[in-house]
Design brief:
The chain is mainly alpha-helical and 136 residues long. 30% of the residues lie in helices and 3% in strands. The chain has 5 helices and 2 strands. The protein has a two-stranded antiparallel ribbon.
């Protein structure tokens, strides 16, 4: 949710309000903050964990003290993760690079390549589905 009074933590185009209002997606008079994800996202595209698992992975790397659950019902409406959180320790450029390259190594959702291909024991099959499609 975008708090227009919190300029320290939010940077956004003013058109997010105008467009959401014009399309009938949001009404300022109801007193609710504009939820950017609920308004502008179609949700989890091709796989239940397409977006949410990525957020979980970054929180697990930078703020493991939050102890967030990896599983959730639905990303867009149920809001399983906070918009933002303070990292447990200082984050370096190298840490950000590590997060961008993460395949959930060290978790049950690891998508790291093994000698025979992708981790077939993973509970998350997004990588395997992509591998299966792209290899033909």
């Amino acid at each position: 949710e975008i708090d227009p009074d919190d300029t320290e933590n939010f940077l956004y185009s003013k058109s997010v309000y105008r467009v959401a209002t014009e399309l009938g997606w949001w009404d300022a008079s109801d007193g609710n903050l504009l939820d950017f994800t609920a308004m502008y996202s179609d949700g989890e595209y091709s796989h239940k964990y397409y977006s949410g698992r990525r957020s979980w992975g970054v929180y697990k790397l930078f703020a493991p003290s939050l102890e967030l659950e990896a599983d959730y019902l639905e990303w867009r409406i149920s809001k399983p993760y906070p918009f933002a959180a303070k990292p447990d320790s200082k984050v370096s450029v190298a840490d950000v690079a590590k997060a961008m390259k993460s395949y959930y190594e060290g978790t049950e959702y690891s998508q790291a390549r093994e000698s025979s291909g992708l981790n077939l024991n993973s509970r998350s099959r997004v990588g395997w589905e992509l591998y299966s499609i792209c290899r033909y």
